[in-house]
Predict the structure.
Amino acid sequence: MLSMRHLSKAYHTDTIKTQALQPFDLTIEQGEFVAIIGPSGSGKTTFLNITGLLEDFCEGSYELDGVNVEHLSDKAKSKLRNEKVGFIFQSFNLIPELTLYDNVDMPLRYRKLSSKERHERIMDALGKVGLASRRDHYPAQLSGGQQQRVAIARAIAGKPSFLLADEPTGNLDSKMAEGIMALLEDINAQGTSIVMVTHDPNQAARAQRVIEIRDGILSEGKRIEKAIA
Amino acid sequence: MLGYYLKLAFISLKKTPFLSFLMIITIAIGIGAAMTTYTVSYLLAKDPIPSKSEKLFNVRLNSFGPDKPFNIAKGKEVPPTILTYQDAMNLQNAQQGVRQTPLGSFKMMTRGITQPVTEAKMTAIRSAYRDMFSMFDVPFKFGGAWDEVADKEGLQVAVISQELNDKLFLGENSVGKSLLIGESSYQIVGVTDDWYPIPKFFDYRVRAYNKPRDIIIPFNTQINNELWTSSDVSFLCWKEPSDDSFSAILASECVWVSYWVELASEADRSRYLDFLHRYSMEQREYGRFLREPLHQLFNVKEDLVDRKVQKEDGNIALWLAFAFLGVCLLNCMAMMVAKFHTKTGEVGLRRAVGASKQDIVAQFSIETCIVGLLGGGLGLLLAQFGLVVTAQLYSHLYAEMLEMTFGIVVMTIVLAITSAMAFGLLPILHAAKVQPSSQLKSL
Ligand SMILES: Nc1ncnc2c1ncn2[C@@H]1O[C@H](COP(=O)(O)OP(=O)(O)OP(=O)(O)O)[C@@H](O)[C@H]1O
Ligand SMILES: [Mg+2]
């Protein structure tokens, strides 16, 4: 469960102040699949980064799974991020010199887990995305869609409450994109909340809830009818 | 976690092999130069006999004639650093120290009893009283010092070095066997074990970094047998000997015997100085010692500084070498900045999956330590090479002497790692500070 009250974000560069997000209230329940839509530069990524504790906000308050994150140290925030949040990026962001296995291992390494438990979780996550047999391959040996699957495996290996996905299919063709969407829906169906930024109205339509951001202003979007698709 | 960071470090170093190599070699060159210089200056400045250096004293008497002083240094008259034979014997007979010995030297053809004359070798030989062995903490492999009778009577006995024992007796216990010095047979009573005082404080300045002599015989044996090599001793006179004979040399006012005394403590020094004063006054009654009574006692350290074998102050080469290490490390630092800059994407990603700044700092610190360790290891090899070259360049330093002690080896590695860390810290902290969200657009 995630709850934000009067949250806002502004960037200050030397002379200019950019109000990336206007003050807003938002609650996302466990198990929800939320799509974030909006034009380029409207603040979607900023919203996601704040949600995932990668960036600080300016005003307001934010509770992640009941924890007020405002005064947490870097270490505590990192721990919370590690346990509660899984990130999926448009450009996959796998480490090229690590095998798929080691890439998925990454979030688990920042937890106190036995190597046996890590192994089980890695193989489980790779199995869920259908790439267990390629555990010793390197990212460059995979297609884009497969790479994004590995990134998803990495995100779910830690069993987070939330997946935060920033245009996860933005770099993929429609067939691969469909595979990723199906995978995300599958993960969501098992109880993991998903917040996904997308430019694709069809994808947004598959979410239970749509939030639109325009010039930093959040608004609860109308549920887009599946019929459009 | 350490295992994980080690694995990441090796993957990272392998990813940029050329840059990694440059970083390691830069540290290695700096460390090699610094540690070569450090080792040489450490050995040159070493206390040759730490347990005794405050208790062993070089004795000097102003036995020179009334006309002119032996020497003037910084406007002050200084006595010679060696004594006449008669003064040395007088001090020896007075027995005012805990132990004492005159030191003489000569050269002679030497060979094993069974060796033909053609295999005889010109050998530098030391002469001393038996006290020398205990005064200078000489270790023995076989046997020991000769007895008092040998001292008094000047018997034909010898203590030889382990090296000579290896050569003549194949390393076996040779005590009781004999060797030939000239054509006379000397019975071996002891074989010294590794004994390399650095510097060899009791010898002349030019020989201070040579090995000790292979053969030591009683002082009186040299005298009795009239063994004399003018090229092997400093023989300084204010009045020439009455004739060319050996007895004339002994009776002369020429100085050539260095004289060492061991006192119970530093505090005993003034008592011995008083004794030297009384001795000088007494000698005046025989018409000797007509100059200022300038008797002096120098302990090992003072004597080495006074004879300019060692310097009192730190040496400039060392400072330069460490400055050079600093320059190398700054270079390495620049490479680390570049190296870690290529990793901002990875840092952002690791932060996103839950690594704290501390985790990032730890990961990169391990990588830096490995660079330091490899640089230190390679630096150690370079330093060894540097020492070999130094030994070749300066023939007065014998090669075995120029070896790193275990302490210096450890220090080299520790220095390499700590300096790599010290200079790597800033790049590491800088890398850990990146705003993770700004680095996630692409990797
Ligand atoms: N680090 C930053 N410093 C200053 N301004 C920033 C920073 N990051 C984002 N912004 C600004 O904040 C606004 C929102 O950016 P954001 O990246 O959230 O947009 P977006 O909705 O994700 O756009 P896109 O669809 O193109 O990814 C933009 O005007 C952007 O220029
Ligand atoms: Mg964006």
